[in-house]
Task: structure prediction
Amino acid sequence: MRFRQPPVIGLLIMGALIGPNMLGIVQSQDLIMLFFQLGAVFLLFEIGVEFSVSRLLSSGFKAVSVSLLKITALFAFGYQIGVLLSLGFLPSLYLGFIFSISSTAILTKLAEQKGTAGRDEMSFLFTMLIIEDIFAVAALTFLSSLSKDAAISLESTLVSLLFALFVLGFSYHVLSRILMRISNMLIKYKTEDTAIFLALALCAMFSIFAYWLGLSPTIGAFIAGDLMSMLPICSKLERPMKPFVLTFTGLFFLSVGMLISPASIAANIGQDVAIVLLFLIASFSIVSLLTYLSGFSSSSAIFAGSSMVVLGEFSLLLAMEASRTISGFDFIGMTSLAVLATAIFSSFALERQGSILSMLHSRSPSRLRMRMHKLSAYFGEVIADFEPQGRFFTLLVQHTRKILRYVFHLVAFAGVSFVLIFFFGRLQLFGMRLFIPIALVTLLAMLYEIIRIVLQLAAILTALSKSVVRFGSEGDSFATILARNSILMAISLAIALFIPAALELASMPKIFYLLNLPFFAFAALLLWDLLSHTPKLRRR
Result:
Protein backbone atom coordinates (compact mmCIF):
# COMPACT_ATOMS: atom_id res chain seq x y z
CA MET A 1 0.00 0.00 0.00
CA ARG A 2 2.98 2.34 0.62
CA PHE A 3 3.75 2.29 -3.10
CA ARG A 4 0.03 2.74 -3.92
CA GLN A 5 -0.16 -0.68 -5.57
CA PRO A 6 -2.91 -3.29 -5.00
CA PRO A 7 -2.29 -5.78 -2.15
CA VAL A 8 -2.47 -8.64 -4.67
CA ILE A 9 1.02 -7.74 -5.92
CA GLY A 10 2.47 -7.99 -2.43
CA LEU A 11 0.73 -11.31 -1.79
CA LEU A 12 2.09 -12.82 -5.00
CA ILE A 13 5.63 -11.63 -4.24
CA MET A 14 5.40 -12.82 -0.63
CA GLY A 15 4.11 -16.21 -1.78
CA ALA A 16 6.99 -16.56 -4.23
CA LEU A 17 9.49 -15.73 -1.45
CA ILE A 18 8.18 -18.26 1.09
CA GLY A 19 7.35 -20.94 -1.48
CA PRO A 20 9.34 -24.08 -2.27
CA ASN A 21 11.09 -22.45 -5.24
CA MET A 22 12.86 -19.74 -3.16
CA LEU A 23 13.21 -19.72 0.65
CA GLY A 24 11.33 -22.99 1.04
CA ILE A 25 9.46 -21.99 4.22
CA VAL A 26 6.41 -23.78 2.81
CA GLN A 27 7.41 -27.03 1.10
CA SER A 28 4.26 -29.18 1.00
CA GLN A 29 2.60 -29.16 -2.42
CA ASP A 30 -0.53 -30.67 -0.86
CA LEU A 31 -0.78 -27.78 1.60
CA ILE A 32 -0.30 -25.23 -1.20
CA MET A 33 -3.02 -26.90 -3.27
CA LEU A 34 -5.35 -26.94 -0.25
CA PHE A 35 -4.82 -23.19 0.23
CA PHE A 36 -5.37 -22.67 -3.49
CA GLN A 37 -8.64 -24.63 -3.60
CA LEU A 38 -10.08 -23.03 -0.46
CA GLY A 39 -9.03 -19.56 -1.59
CA ALA A 40 -10.46 -20.04 -5.06
CA VAL A 41 -13.78 -21.26 -3.63
CA PHE A 42 -14.14 -18.24 -1.32
CA LEU A 43 -12.99 -15.84 -4.03
CA LEU A 44 -15.66 -17.07 -6.44
CA PHE A 45 -18.22 -17.08 -3.62
CA GLU A 46 -17.47 -13.39 -2.96
CA ILE A 47 -17.75 -12.55 -6.67
CA GLY A 48 -21.08 -14.40 -6.77
CA VAL A 49 -22.38 -12.37 -3.82
CA GLU A 50 -21.41 -9.13 -5.56
CA PHE A 51 -22.89 -10.30 -8.87
CA SER A 52 -25.90 -8.18 -9.85
CA VAL A 53 -28.35 -9.32 -12.49
CA SER A 54 -30.31 -6.07 -12.16
CA ARG A 55 -27.21 -4.00 -12.95
CA LEU A 56 -26.51 -6.23 -15.94
CA LEU A 57 -30.06 -5.88 -17.29
CA SER A 58 -30.27 -2.14 -16.67
CA SER A 59 -26.90 -1.34 -18.26
CA GLY A 60 -28.22 -1.65 -21.77
CA PHE A 61 -26.67 -2.59 -25.03
CA LYS A 62 -23.49 -0.51 -24.80
CA ALA A 63 -21.69 -2.43 -22.05
CA VAL A 64 -22.70 -5.79 -23.51
CA SER A 65 -21.47 -4.95 -27.01
CA VAL A 66 -18.17 -3.45 -25.83
CA SER A 67 -17.55 -6.41 -23.50
CA LEU A 68 -18.18 -9.01 -26.19
CA LEU A 69 -15.95 -7.20 -28.69
CA LYS A 70 -13.20 -6.78 -26.09
CA ILE A 71 -13.34 -10.44 -25.08
CA THR A 72 -13.30 -11.55 -28.73
CA ALA A 73 -10.34 -9.34 -29.67
CA LEU A 74 -8.19 -10.25 -26.65
CA PHE A 75 -9.07 -13.93 -26.92
CA ALA A 76 -7.86 -13.81 -30.52
CA PHE A 77 -4.66 -12.12 -29.30
CA GLY A 78 -3.97 -14.82 -26.69
CA TYR A 79 -4.87 -17.64 -29.05
CA GLN A 80 -2.52 -16.28 -31.70
CA ILE A 81 0.30 -16.17 -29.15
CA GLY A 82 -0.26 -19.88 -28.61
CA VAL A 83 -0.32 -20.54 -32.35
CA LEU A 84 2.91 -18.59 -32.90
CA LEU A 85 4.58 -20.56 -30.10
CA SER A 86 3.29 -23.85 -31.61
CA LEU A 87 1.65 -24.83 -28.33
CA GLY A 88 -1.32 -26.65 -29.84
CA PHE A 89 -5.10 -26.23 -29.67
CA LEU A 90 -5.82 -26.58 -25.94
CA PRO A 91 -2.86 -24.49 -24.64
CA SER A 92 -3.79 -21.77 -27.14
CA LEU A 93 -7.38 -21.85 -25.85
CA TYR A 94 -6.11 -21.35 -22.31
CA LEU A 95 -3.94 -18.40 -23.36
CA GLY A 96 -6.89 -16.85 -25.17
CA PHE A 97 -9.11 -17.07 -22.10
CA ILE A 98 -6.33 -15.95 -19.73
CA PHE A 99 -5.76 -12.71 -21.65
CA SER A 100 -9.43 -11.88 -22.27
CA ILE A 101 -10.65 -11.42 -18.68
CA SER A 102 -9.99 -8.34 -16.54
CA SER A 103 -9.69 -8.48 -12.77
CA THR A 104 -12.68 -7.37 -10.71
CA ALA A 105 -10.73 -7.52 -7.43
CA ILE A 106 -7.69 -5.50 -8.57
CA LEU A 107 -9.72 -2.94 -10.52
CA THR A 108 -11.92 -2.33 -7.47
CA LYS A 109 -8.88 -1.84 -5.22
CA LEU A 110 -7.25 0.52 -7.72
CA ALA A 111 -10.47 2.54 -8.01
CA GLU A 112 -10.56 2.92 -4.21
CA GLN A 113 -6.88 3.93 -3.99
CA LYS A 114 -6.96 6.37 -6.90
CA GLY A 115 -10.29 7.94 -5.90
CA THR A 116 -11.95 7.06 -9.20
CA ALA A 117 -14.77 4.89 -7.78
CA GLY A 118 -17.25 7.76 -8.11
CA ARG A 119 -16.60 8.50 -11.79
CA ASP A 120 -19.53 8.18 -14.17
CA GLU A 121 -17.69 5.58 -16.26
CA MET A 122 -17.37 3.17 -13.32
CA SER A 123 -20.95 1.92 -13.66
CA PHE A 124 -20.19 1.06 -17.29
CA LEU A 125 -16.91 -0.64 -16.35
CA PHE A 126 -18.44 -2.63 -13.49
CA THR A 127 -21.14 -3.88 -15.84
CA MET A 128 -18.42 -4.98 -18.24
CA LEU A 129 -16.74 -6.80 -15.36
CA ILE A 130 -19.99 -8.61 -14.53
CA ILE A 131 -20.27 -9.79 -18.13
CA GLU A 132 -16.62 -10.88 -18.10
CA ASP A 133 -17.17 -12.74 -14.81
CA ILE A 134 -20.01 -14.70 -16.44
CA PHE A 135 -17.75 -15.45 -19.39
CA ALA A 136 -14.90 -16.44 -17.06
CA VAL A 137 -17.07 -18.85 -15.08
CA ALA A 138 -18.27 -20.42 -18.34
CA ALA A 139 -14.68 -20.64 -19.63
CA LEU A 140 -13.43 -22.17 -16.38
CA THR A 141 -16.25 -24.71 -16.44
CA PHE A 142 -15.64 -25.57 -20.07
CA LEU A 143 -11.85 -25.85 -19.90
CA SER A 144 -11.84 -27.82 -16.65
CA SER A 145 -14.09 -30.38 -18.39
CA LEU A 146 -11.87 -30.77 -21.43
CA SER A 147 -9.36 -33.57 -21.77
CA LYS A 148 -6.03 -33.33 -23.59
CA ASP A 149 -7.63 -34.63 -26.78
CA ALA A 150 -10.02 -31.68 -26.71
CA ALA A 151 -10.51 -31.53 -30.46
CA ILE A 152 -11.80 -35.12 -30.44
CA SER A 153 -13.90 -35.09 -27.27
CA LEU A 154 -15.30 -31.56 -27.65
CA GLU A 155 -18.84 -32.62 -28.60
CA SER A 156 -19.22 -35.19 -25.81
CA THR A 157 -17.70 -32.74 -23.33
CA LEU A 158 -20.23 -30.07 -24.26
CA VAL A 159 -23.15 -32.49 -23.84
CA SER A 160 -22.02 -33.63 -20.38
CA LEU A 161 -21.20 -30.04 -19.42
CA LEU A 162 -24.65 -28.77 -20.41
CA PHE A 163 -26.30 -31.62 -18.51
CA ALA A 164 -24.29 -30.87 -15.38
CA LEU A 165 -25.11 -27.15 -15.62
CA PHE A 166 -28.80 -27.99 -16.08
CA VAL A 167 -28.80 -30.11 -12.91
CA LEU A 168 -26.93 -27.37 -11.03
CA GLY A 169 -29.31 -24.70 -12.34
CA PHE A 170 -32.38 -26.74 -11.39
CA SER A 171 -31.00 -27.17 -7.87
CA TYR A 172 -30.38 -23.42 -7.75
CA HIS A 173 -33.99 -22.71 -8.74
CA VAL A 174 -35.43 -25.09 -6.13
CA LEU A 175 -33.16 -23.95 -3.30
CA SER A 176 -33.79 -20.25 -4.00
CA ARG A 177 -37.42 -20.67 -2.94
CA ILE A 178 -36.54 -22.65 0.18
CA LEU A 179 -33.74 -20.31 1.25
CA MET A 180 -35.97 -17.26 0.83
CA ARG A 181 -38.26 -18.63 3.55
CA ILE A 182 -35.32 -19.55 5.79
CA SER A 183 -33.88 -16.05 5.35
CA ASN A 184 -37.18 -14.43 6.34
CA MET A 185 -37.33 -16.66 9.43
CA LEU A 186 -33.79 -15.70 10.47
CA ILE A 187 -34.65 -12.01 10.14
CA LYS A 188 -37.96 -12.45 11.98
CA TYR A 189 -36.41 -14.21 14.98
CA LYS A 190 -33.28 -12.01 14.90
CA THR A 191 -30.85 -14.89 14.48
CA GLU A 192 -28.64 -13.27 11.85
CA ASP A 193 -25.54 -14.93 13.35
CA THR A 194 -26.86 -18.27 12.14
CA ALA A 195 -26.87 -16.85 8.61
CA ILE A 196 -23.06 -17.01 8.56
CA PHE A 197 -23.18 -20.76 8.99
CA LEU A 198 -25.94 -20.91 6.38
CA ALA A 199 -23.72 -19.06 3.88
CA LEU A 200 -20.69 -21.25 4.62
CA ALA A 201 -22.78 -24.43 4.43
CA LEU A 202 -24.34 -23.32 1.15
CA CYS A 203 -20.91 -22.54 -0.31
CA ALA A 204 -19.56 -25.94 0.76
CA MET A 205 -22.65 -27.82 -0.44
CA PHE A 206 -22.68 -26.29 -3.93
CA SER A 207 -18.91 -26.68 -4.29
CA ILE A 208 -19.10 -30.39 -3.43
CA PHE A 209 -22.16 -30.85 -5.63
CA ALA A 210 -20.41 -29.18 -8.59
CA TYR A 211 -17.36 -31.41 -8.06
CA TRP A 212 -19.63 -34.48 -7.95
CA LEU A 213 -21.15 -33.39 -11.28
CA GLY A 214 -17.68 -33.21 -12.82
CA LEU A 215 -17.43 -29.40 -12.70
CA SER A 216 -14.94 -27.20 -10.91
CA PRO A 217 -15.87 -26.58 -7.23
CA THR A 218 -15.40 -22.87 -7.86
CA ILE A 219 -18.43 -22.91 -10.18
CA GLY A 220 -20.58 -24.19 -7.34
CA ALA A 221 -19.17 -21.51 -5.04
CA PHE A 222 -20.03 -18.78 -7.57
CA ILE A 223 -23.62 -20.06 -7.85
CA ALA A 224 -23.90 -20.27 -4.05
CA GLY A 225 -22.72 -16.67 -3.77
CA ASP A 226 -25.23 -15.52 -6.36
CA LEU A 227 -27.94 -17.42 -4.48
CA MET A 228 -27.00 -15.69 -1.22
CA SER A 229 -27.07 -12.27 -2.92
CA MET A 230 -30.78 -12.77 -3.66
CA LEU A 231 -31.71 -13.27 0.01
CA PRO A 232 -32.88 -10.34 2.18
CA ILE A 233 -30.44 -11.33 4.92
CA CYS A 234 -27.43 -10.91 2.62
CA SER A 235 -27.01 -7.23 3.54
CA LYS A 236 -26.41 -8.25 7.16
CA LEU A 237 -23.67 -10.73 6.22
CA GLU A 238 -21.15 -8.34 4.68
CA ARG A 239 -19.33 -7.40 7.90
CA PRO A 240 -19.21 -10.84 9.62
CA MET A 241 -18.29 -12.63 6.38
CA LYS A 242 -15.50 -10.23 5.44
CA PRO A 243 -12.79 -11.83 7.66
CA PHE A 244 -13.47 -15.25 6.13
CA VAL A 245 -13.35 -13.91 2.61
CA LEU A 246 -10.21 -11.77 3.14
CA THR A 247 -8.37 -14.62 4.84
CA PHE A 248 -9.05 -17.26 2.23
CA THR A 249 -8.72 -15.00 -0.82
CA GLY A 250 -5.39 -13.87 0.63
CA LEU A 251 -4.42 -17.54 0.89
CA PHE A 252 -5.39 -17.95 -2.76
CA PHE A 253 -2.99 -15.28 -4.00
CA LEU A 254 -0.29 -16.47 -1.58
CA SER A 255 -0.62 -20.05 -2.85
CA VAL A 256 -0.40 -18.87 -6.45
CA GLY A 257 2.77 -16.98 -5.53
CA MET A 258 4.20 -20.14 -3.95
CA LEU A 259 3.78 -21.93 -7.27
CA ILE A 260 5.82 -19.30 -9.13
CA SER A 261 9.19 -20.60 -10.20
CA PRO A 262 11.71 -17.74 -10.57
CA ALA A 263 14.07 -20.11 -12.40
CA SER A 264 11.38 -20.92 -14.97
CA ILE A 265 10.56 -17.23 -15.41
CA ALA A 266 14.24 -16.39 -15.79
CA ALA A 267 14.65 -19.11 -18.41
CA ASN A 268 11.80 -17.62 -20.47
CA ILE A 269 12.10 -14.00 -19.39
CA GLY A 270 12.53 -12.61 -22.90
CA GLN A 271 9.52 -14.48 -24.25
CA ASP A 272 7.28 -13.70 -21.26
CA VAL A 273 8.20 -10.01 -21.17
CA ALA A 274 7.53 -9.70 -24.91
CA ILE A 275 4.11 -11.37 -24.51
CA VAL A 276 3.16 -9.13 -21.58
CA LEU A 277 4.29 -5.95 -23.36
CA LEU A 278 2.31 -6.90 -26.47
CA PHE A 279 -0.73 -7.61 -24.29
CA LEU A 280 -0.44 -4.24 -22.53
CA ILE A 281 -0.39 -2.43 -25.87
CA ALA A 282 -3.19 -4.55 -27.34
CA SER A 283 -5.49 -4.41 -24.30
CA PHE A 284 -5.07 -0.68 -23.66
CA SER A 285 -5.58 0.14 -27.35
CA ILE A 286 -8.57 -2.18 -27.88
CA VAL A 287 -10.50 -1.14 -24.75
CA SER A 288 -9.79 2.57 -25.29
CA LEU A 289 -10.83 2.39 -28.94
CA LEU A 290 -14.01 0.39 -28.28
CA THR A 291 -15.02 2.69 -25.43
CA TYR A 292 -14.44 5.77 -27.58
CA LEU A 293 -16.35 4.33 -30.53
CA SER A 294 -19.29 3.47 -28.27
CA GLY A 295 -19.89 7.17 -27.67
CA PHE A 296 -17.67 8.08 -24.70
CA SER A 297 -15.25 11.00 -24.71
CA SER A 298 -11.55 10.50 -25.36
CA SER A 299 -10.70 11.06 -21.68
CA SER A 300 -13.25 8.43 -20.64
CA ALA A 301 -11.79 6.05 -23.21
CA ILE A 302 -8.26 6.48 -21.79
CA PHE A 303 -9.64 5.91 -18.29
CA ALA A 304 -11.41 2.71 -19.40
CA GLY A 305 -8.32 1.42 -21.19
CA SER A 306 -6.13 2.13 -18.15
CA SER A 307 -8.57 0.41 -15.78
CA MET A 308 -9.56 -2.69 -17.76
CA VAL A 309 -5.99 -3.69 -18.64
CA VAL A 310 -5.50 -5.52 -15.33
CA LEU A 311 -5.46 -9.31 -15.22
CA GLY A 312 -6.13 -11.11 -11.96
CA GLU A 313 -8.04 -13.84 -10.18
CA PHE A 314 -9.69 -15.60 -13.12
CA SER A 315 -6.53 -15.50 -15.21
CA LEU A 316 -4.61 -17.11 -12.34
CA LEU A 317 -7.34 -19.73 -11.88
CA LEU A 318 -7.17 -20.59 -15.57
CA ALA A 319 -3.36 -20.69 -15.46
CA MET A 320 -3.52 -23.06 -12.52
CA GLU A 321 -6.02 -25.27 -14.34
CA ALA A 322 -3.79 -25.28 -17.43
CA SER A 323 -0.67 -26.21 -15.46
CA ARG A 324 -2.40 -29.35 -14.17
CA THR A 325 -2.97 -30.88 -17.59
CA ILE A 326 -0.46 -29.19 -19.90
CA SER A 327 3.31 -29.43 -19.69
CA GLY A 328 5.96 -27.58 -21.66
CA PHE A 329 4.76 -24.04 -20.94
CA ASP A 330 4.93 -22.12 -17.64
CA PHE A 331 1.36 -20.77 -17.50
CA ILE A 332 1.60 -19.78 -13.83
CA GLY A 333 4.88 -17.89 -14.21
CA MET A 334 3.78 -16.02 -17.33
CA THR A 335 0.33 -15.17 -15.90
CA SER A 336 1.77 -14.05 -12.55
CA LEU A 337 4.21 -11.79 -14.37
CA ALA A 338 1.30 -10.43 -16.43
CA VAL A 339 -0.78 -9.77 -13.29
CA LEU A 340 2.12 -7.86 -11.70
CA ALA A 341 2.88 -5.89 -14.86
CA THR A 342 -0.73 -5.00 -15.68
CA ALA A 343 -1.49 -3.86 -12.12
CA ILE A 344 1.59 -1.61 -12.07
CA PHE A 345 0.83 -0.28 -15.56
CA SER A 346 -2.81 0.40 -14.65
CA SER A 347 -1.79 2.29 -11.51
CA PHE A 348 0.76 4.31 -13.50
CA ALA A 349 -1.66 5.05 -16.36
CA LEU A 350 -4.53 6.10 -14.06
CA GLU A 351 -2.29 8.73 -12.47
CA ARG A 352 -1.18 10.06 -15.87
CA GLN A 353 -4.38 10.00 -17.93
CA GLY A 354 -4.05 13.64 -18.89
CA SER A 355 -0.47 13.20 -20.10
CA ILE A 356 -1.38 10.12 -22.16
CA LEU A 357 -4.33 11.93 -23.74
CA SER A 358 -2.23 15.01 -24.57
CA MET A 359 0.48 12.83 -26.12
CA LEU A 360 -2.06 10.97 -28.29
CA HIS A 361 -3.67 14.24 -29.41
CA SER A 362 -0.33 15.83 -30.28
CA ARG A 363 0.87 12.81 -32.29
CA SER A 364 -2.32 12.02 -34.20
CA PRO A 365 -3.23 13.97 -37.37
CA SER A 366 -6.20 16.31 -37.09
CA ARG A 367 -7.88 14.60 -40.06
CA LEU A 368 -7.66 11.23 -38.29
CA ARG A 369 -9.10 12.73 -35.10
CA MET A 370 -11.98 14.20 -37.08
CA ARG A 371 -12.79 10.87 -38.71
CA MET A 372 -12.60 9.06 -35.38
CA HIS A 373 -14.93 11.65 -33.87
CA LYS A 374 -17.46 11.05 -36.65
CA LEU A 375 -17.20 7.28 -36.16
CA SER A 376 -17.71 7.72 -32.42
CA ALA A 377 -20.79 9.86 -33.02
CA TYR A 378 -22.17 7.33 -35.52
CA PHE A 379 -21.69 4.26 -33.31
CA GLY A 380 -22.91 6.18 -30.26
CA GLU A 381 -26.18 7.01 -32.03
CA VAL A 382 -26.59 3.43 -33.27
CA ILE A 383 -25.98 1.98 -29.80
CA ALA A 384 -28.37 4.53 -28.25
CA ASP A 385 -31.14 3.20 -30.50
CA PHE A 386 -30.55 -0.31 -29.11
CA GLU A 387 -30.69 0.80 -25.47
CA PRO A 388 -33.90 -0.02 -23.49
CA GLN A 389 -35.24 3.50 -24.07
CA GLY A 390 -33.92 3.76 -27.63
CA ARG A 391 -35.99 4.15 -30.78
CA PHE A 392 -35.25 0.76 -32.31
CA PHE A 393 -35.61 -1.11 -29.02
CA THR A 394 -39.03 0.47 -28.42
CA LEU A 395 -40.23 -0.40 -31.93
CA LEU A 396 -38.80 -3.91 -31.62
CA VAL A 397 -40.80 -4.53 -28.44
CA GLN A 398 -44.00 -3.21 -30.05
CA HIS A 399 -43.66 -5.27 -33.23
CA THR A 400 -42.55 -8.38 -31.33
CA ARG A 401 -45.68 -8.25 -29.18
CA LYS A 402 -47.81 -8.09 -32.31
CA ILE A 403 -45.91 -10.99 -33.88
CA LEU A 404 -46.44 -13.11 -30.77
CA ARG A 405 -50.15 -12.29 -30.86
CA TYR A 406 -50.37 -13.30 -34.51
CA VAL A 407 -48.45 -16.51 -33.82
CA PHE A 408 -50.96 -17.28 -31.07
CA HIS A 409 -53.75 -16.74 -33.62
CA LEU A 410 -52.03 -19.20 -35.97
CA VAL A 411 -51.80 -21.84 -33.27
CA ALA A 412 -55.41 -21.22 -32.21
CA PHE A 413 -56.69 -21.51 -35.80
CA ALA A 414 -54.75 -24.73 -36.29
CA GLY A 415 -56.07 -26.16 -33.01
CA VAL A 416 -59.70 -25.24 -33.68
CA SER A 417 -59.43 -26.57 -37.22
CA PHE A 418 -58.03 -29.88 -35.96
CA VAL A 419 -60.89 -30.27 -33.46
CA LEU A 420 -63.56 -29.40 -36.06
CA ILE A 421 -62.10 -31.75 -38.66
CA PHE A 422 -61.73 -34.53 -36.09
CA PHE A 423 -65.38 -34.35 -34.99
CA PHE A 424 -67.18 -33.02 -38.07
CA GLY A 425 -64.82 -33.57 -40.99
CA ARG A 426 -66.63 -36.65 -42.27
CA LEU A 427 -70.06 -35.03 -42.25
CA GLN A 428 -71.48 -33.81 -45.55
CA LEU A 429 -73.22 -30.57 -46.43
CA PHE A 430 -74.79 -30.11 -49.89
CA GLY A 431 -73.00 -33.26 -51.01
CA MET A 432 -69.58 -32.01 -49.88
CA ARG A 433 -67.62 -33.21 -46.86
CA LEU A 434 -67.15 -30.51 -44.22
CA PHE A 435 -63.43 -31.23 -44.19
CA ILE A 436 -62.93 -29.14 -47.35
CA PRO A 437 -64.59 -25.83 -46.25
CA ILE A 438 -63.09 -26.10 -42.75
CA ALA A 439 -59.60 -26.62 -44.16
CA LEU A 440 -60.08 -23.83 -46.73
CA VAL A 441 -61.28 -21.29 -44.16
CA THR A 442 -58.43 -22.27 -41.83
CA LEU A 443 -55.82 -21.88 -44.56
CA LEU A 444 -57.17 -18.44 -45.51
CA ALA A 445 -57.19 -17.32 -41.88
CA MET A 446 -53.66 -18.64 -41.33
CA LEU A 447 -52.45 -17.01 -44.56
CA TYR A 448 -53.86 -13.69 -43.34
CA GLU A 449 -51.96 -14.03 -40.04
CA ILE A 450 -48.76 -15.03 -41.86
CA ILE A 451 -49.03 -11.91 -44.03
CA ARG A 452 -49.45 -9.80 -40.88
CA ILE A 453 -46.35 -11.45 -39.36
CA VAL A 454 -44.33 -10.78 -42.54
CA LEU A 455 -45.42 -7.12 -42.49
CA GLN A 456 -44.30 -6.79 -38.87
CA LEU A 457 -40.95 -8.39 -39.70
CA ALA A 458 -40.57 -5.95 -42.60
CA ALA A 459 -41.32 -3.07 -40.23
CA ILE A 460 -38.62 -4.34 -37.84
CA LEU A 461 -36.16 -4.60 -40.71
CA THR A 462 -36.99 -1.06 -41.84
CA ALA A 463 -36.51 0.28 -38.31
CA LEU A 464 -33.21 -1.60 -38.04
CA SER A 465 -31.96 -0.21 -41.35
CA LYS A 466 -32.87 3.33 -40.26
CA SER A 467 -30.92 2.85 -37.03
CA VAL A 468 -27.82 1.37 -38.68
CA VAL A 469 -27.74 3.12 -42.08
CA ARG A 470 -27.26 6.72 -40.94
CA PHE A 471 -25.42 8.16 -43.91
CA GLY A 472 -26.13 11.29 -45.90
CA SER A 473 -29.24 13.39 -45.38
CA GLU A 474 -32.97 13.22 -46.08
CA GLY A 475 -32.61 15.25 -49.27
CA ASP A 476 -30.14 12.91 -50.99
CA SER A 477 -31.11 11.86 -54.50
CA PHE A 478 -31.70 8.22 -55.36
CA ALA A 479 -28.54 8.24 -57.51
CA THR A 480 -26.48 9.37 -54.50
CA ILE A 481 -28.04 6.70 -52.28
CA LEU A 482 -27.51 4.05 -54.96
CA ALA A 483 -23.82 4.92 -55.38
CA ARG A 484 -23.13 5.19 -51.65
CA ASN A 485 -24.94 1.99 -50.62
CA SER A 486 -23.47 0.03 -53.53
CA ILE A 487 -19.91 0.98 -52.57
CA LEU A 488 -20.52 0.17 -48.90
CA MET A 489 -22.17 -3.15 -49.83
CA ALA A 490 -19.20 -4.10 -52.00
CA ILE A 491 -16.75 -3.27 -49.21
CA SER A 492 -18.81 -5.13 -46.60
CA LEU A 493 -19.18 -8.24 -48.77
CA ALA A 494 -15.48 -8.18 -49.63
CA ILE A 495 -14.58 -8.13 -45.93
CA ALA A 496 -17.08 -10.92 -45.19
CA LEU A 497 -15.57 -13.09 -47.92
CA PHE A 498 -12.00 -12.28 -46.85
CA ILE A 499 -12.52 -13.20 -43.17
CA PRO A 500 -12.63 -17.03 -43.62
CA ALA A 501 -9.38 -17.02 -45.59
CA ALA A 502 -7.68 -14.81 -42.99
CA LEU A 503 -8.92 -16.99 -40.13
CA GLU A 504 -7.77 -20.14 -41.91
CA LEU A 505 -4.33 -18.60 -42.36
CA ALA A 506 -4.24 -17.64 -38.67
CA SER A 507 -5.43 -21.14 -37.58
CA MET A 508 -8.24 -19.64 -35.50
CA PRO A 509 -11.04 -21.81 -34.00
CA LYS A 510 -14.00 -22.45 -36.30
CA ILE A 511 -16.37 -20.38 -34.18
CA PHE A 512 -14.54 -17.23 -35.33
CA TYR A 513 -15.90 -17.84 -38.82
CA LEU A 514 -19.13 -16.30 -37.49
CA LEU A 515 -17.36 -12.93 -37.56
CA ASN A 516 -18.37 -12.49 -41.20
CA LEU A 517 -22.08 -12.57 -40.32
CA PRO A 518 -22.23 -8.91 -39.15
CA PHE A 519 -20.76 -7.82 -42.49
CA PHE A 520 -23.29 -9.89 -44.44
CA ALA A 521 -26.04 -8.43 -42.24
CA PHE A 522 -24.77 -4.89 -42.83
CA ALA A 523 -24.78 -5.49 -46.60
CA ALA A 524 -28.35 -6.80 -46.36
CA LEU A 525 -29.44 -3.69 -44.42
CA LEU A 526 -27.83 -1.46 -47.04
CA LEU A 527 -29.76 -3.30 -49.76
CA TRP A 528 -33.01 -2.99 -47.79
CA ASP A 529 -32.39 0.73 -47.29
CA LEU A 530 -31.76 1.08 -51.02
CA LEU A 531 -35.00 -0.73 -51.87
CA SER A 532 -36.93 1.45 -49.43
CA HIS A 533 -35.86 4.53 -51.41
CA THR A 534 -36.94 3.23 -54.83
CA PRO A 535 -40.53 4.57 -54.54
CA LYS A 536 -39.08 8.08 -54.39
CA LEU A 537 -37.60 7.55 -57.85
CA ARG A 538 -40.97 6.39 -59.21
CA ARG A 539 -42.80 9.41 -57.76
CA ARG A 540 -40.28 11.73 -59.37
Notes: Residues 18 and 118 are 38 Å apart (CA to CA).
